[in-house]
Amino acid sequence: MAPPKKNVANDTAQGNGAHAPPPLTRDQELKALRDMLLIRRFEEKAGQLYGMGAIGGFCHLYIGQEAVVVGILGAAKEGDQIVTGYRDHGHMLACGMDAKGVMAELTGRSGGYSRGKGGSMHMFSVEKRFYGGHGIVGAQVPIGTGLAFANKYRGNDHVSLTFFGDGAANQGQVYESFNMAELWRLPVIYVIENNQYAMGTAIARASAQTNLSKRGVSFNIPGEQVDGMDVRAVRAAAIKAMEWCRAGNGPYILEMMTYRYRGHSMSDPAKYRAKEEVNKMRQEHDPIEQVRHRMLEGGMTEDDLKEIDKEIRVTVNEAAEFAQSSPEPDPSELWTDVLATTDHTAVGA
Amino acid sequence: MATNILMPTLSPTMEEGTLAKWLVKEGDEVRSGDVIAEIETDKATMEVEAVDEGRIAKLVVPAGTENVKVNSVIAVLAEEGESLATTPASQAPAAAAEAPQPVAAAVVAVPAAPKVEEEVKADPEIPTGTEFTTMTVREALRDAMAEEMRRDPGVFVMGEEVAQYHGAYKVTQGLLEEFGPVRVFDTPITEHGFAGLGVGASFAGLRPIVEFMTFNFAMQAMDQLINSAAKTRYMSGGQMGAPIVFRGPNGPAARVAAQHSQDYTSWYAHIPGLIVIAPYSAADAKGLLKAAIRDPNPVIFLENEILYGKSFDVPKLDDHVLPIGKARVLKEGTDVTIGSHSHGLVYCVEAAEKLAAEGINAEIVDLRTIRPLDIDTIVASVKKTNRLVTVEETWPVCGIGAEIAAQVQAKAFDWRDAPILRVTQKDVPMPYAANLEKLALPSAEEVVEAVKAVCYR
Question: How far apart are CA B457 and CA B453, in angstroms?
Answer without folding.
Answer: 6
